[in-house]
Write a structure and sequence with these properties.
Layout: H1 2-17, H2 34-108, H3 137-148, H4 155-176, E1 184-185, E2 189-191, H5 193-196, E3 205-213, E4 218-224, E5 238-245, H6 271-274, H7 278-283, H8 295-313, E6 319-323, E7 331-336, E8 341-351, E9 358-360, E10 378-381, H9 383-394, H10 403-421, H11 428-441, H12 452-469, H13 490-493, H14 503-506, H15 508-531
Helix pairs in contact: 4-8, 10-11, 10-12, 10-15, 11-12
Length: 547
């Protein structure tokens, strides 16, 4: 029995040991499902590889997103810093601009830069003076004595004669006018070069302005470009004149400014008082269907009134009176039987409030108001204050000062050049404006008679600078340093400076003609002066006397 059990156990052990799954032989056969297993393993390996690539891609995307966020944060930080720097530069630029603007206003109000002293020489003058031979003091003295003084000696007699006749003519004009319906004419005043003693070119022409006012119960309400209401840039220097009843409140009611409607009535103004027949306004020389004074209507009325006045007094005089210019109602000419004639201008004006500023209908022989916006726009003239300023300053200057002499010489040279090359935009009023600025900028001792040459160079230098910059500011408008003794209206002192060269900025042809005329005048200056100069010894001293 034990032996049998042993044999059975041995057989089982032998079978287990010899089983091929535990100890396969090298030449053993491969099971049939091995290829399937290998295929599954390859698929598993491929899926693991794809999963690895996916994970690597996700990691790379996360890293790129992180870098983009970090870069965006850096850009935002830099933009904040740039904005802070930009705000700082903007604020700094605004401060600099304000400082420049303040300096410009101070400069325009009269703080003109030093434009040369007695030590100035030709080296400091502009490019236009290179190669120009400037006459010396002796030549200028001889030229002034022979050409200027020799032709202006009879101006005083002519002024006296013209003023006397004008007073008689205006008195006759008042007598022929209807005091209840026509304009009321006041006494005339002399202005311009003839009354400032610097006119040199013949024929001598006296400029007289005649203020007029409407009949009662009407009055003029004047409005200027600087009175508060907005005016276009091309209307600076102009104003309008409204004809109103003296008892009319032009500011207290808005019934004439807005349409109330047919079923509404203003309690302050009845329909009867507010309605004015258009014929009445036209009789008051207003523009059609308006209350604004029409310059063209004033010109026609003045011509007719002067003609009637002359017909009444013509028997008293042994000469004829006629209108010399069709477009100037007050351009008159006296013709004597001997053939001689005297020309003068009698121009109607309207007084601005209680000042000596006047609205003028037109400028005889001048291009200052050549482009008037409309016939209801009137140009303002400051001629009375200009004359008073020259008289006031002359009292503080040395005896026989050379300021008027400089203007006379420059006006003569400019007139001669225009007769050779034709007229240009540059006028004698521009030359006088240059002198007014220099009179205010320079001390009185700089205008001694022996300094004529230096001051004449200063005027030419200043004019060249203005032509180059296209800026020549009106002397009174925007000038806060006008002497208080003149009683000049403060509204014009506080106004923006008026550039007299502004019309030439857009009209390049006129500007070029003006600059060419100035340069030609400089080149011909010595020849023009020598033509009228007497040869004098070198030891001759300069003794120029005032006109």
């Amino acid at each position: 029995m034990p032996v049998g059990l042993f044999r059975v156990c041995l057989l089982v052990i032998t079978a287990i040991v010899n089983h091929p799954l535990f100890f396969p032989k090298e030449n053993g056969t491969v099971p049939e499902n091995t290829e399937e297993i290998i295929q599954k393993m390859k698929q598993r390996e491929e899926s693991l590889r794809l999963e690895q690539l996916r994970l690597e891609q996700e990691i790379a995307d996360q890293e790129a997103t992180q870098k983009a966020l970090e870069k965006a944060a850096v850009v935002v930080e830099e933009s904040k810093e740039e904005k802070v720097r930009w705000d700082m530069w903007t604020a700094l630029s605004m401060v600099i601009f304000l400082l420049i603007e303040l300096w410009r206003q101070d400069f325009q109000e009269g703080n003109w830069q030093d434009i040369g002293g007695e030590e100035d020489d030709m080296a400091v003058l502009g490019k236009a003076f290179k190669g120009v031979a400037f006459p010396d003091k002796a030549v200028l003295a001889s030229f002034y004595e022979k050409r200027i003084l020799g032709t202006t000696g009879d101006m005083a007699r002519m002024r006296e004669m013209v003023e006397g006749f004008a007073d008689d003519l205006l008195e006759a004009l008042r007598s022929v006018c209807n005091r209840d319906a026509d304009m009321e004419v006041e006494d005339c005043m002399g202005v311009g070069s003839m009354y400032e003693n610097w006119r040199v070119r013949k024929p001598f022409v006296c400029d007289l302005i005649v203020p007029f006012a409407p009949p009662e119960p009407y009055c003029f309400r004047c409005q200027t470009w600087c009175s508060g209401d907005s005016f276009p840039p091309d209307e600076q220097g102009y104003g309008t004149i409204k004809v109103c009843r003296a008892d009319e409140d032009v500011t207290g009611c808005i019934c004439d400014k807005t349409k109330l409607g047919e079923d509404m009535l203003c309690l302050l103004h009845s329909q009867v008082s507010s309605a004015r027949p258009s014929s009445d306004m036209e009789d008051l020389l207003c523009f059609k269907n308006t209350q604004y004074l029409d310059a063209d209507q004033v010109m026609k009325w003045f011509q007719i009134a002067v003609t009637k006045a002359w017909n009444r007094i013509s028997h008293k005089y042994e000469f004829d009176l006629s209108f010399s210019l069709l477009d100037s109602p007050g351009a008159l000419k006296i013709k004597f039987k001997s053939g001689k004639s005297i020309a003068f201008n009698l121009t109607p004006v309207v007084q601005y409030e209680n000042s000596d500023v006047y609205f003028i209908s037109h400028f005889p022989r001048s291009s200052l108001a050549a482009d008037i916006p409309s016939s209801t726009h009137w140009f303002l003239t400051f001629a009375v204050y200009e004359r008073r300023f020259i008289q006031l300053v002359s009292k503080t200057l040395p005896a026989n000062a050379c300021h008027v002499s400089c203007l006379q010489i420059l006006s003569f040279l400019h007139g001669k050049q225009c007769s050779l090359t034709g007229p240009s935009g540059l006028t004698n009023y521009h030359l006088k404006t240059v002198l007014l600025h220099l009179l205010q900028a320079r001390p009185g001792q700089d205008w001694a008679p022996e300094k004529l040459e230096a001051r004449l160079q200063d005027m030419l230098k200043f004019l060249e600078k203005c032509l180059h910059e296209k800026k020549l500011y009106h002397f009174f408008i925007g000038n806060g340093k006008v002497p208080a003794e003149l009683g000049f209206p403060i509204i014009f002192q506080r106004a923006e400076p008026l550039n007299l060269f502004r019309p030439f900025v857009l009209r390049r042809d006129i500007y070029r003609k003006m600059v060419d005329t100035f340069h030609e005048m400089l080149r011909n200056m010595s020849a023009l002066i020598n033509e009228y100069t007497v040869h004098i010894p070198l030891a001759h001293t300069n003794g120029i006397r005032k006109e």
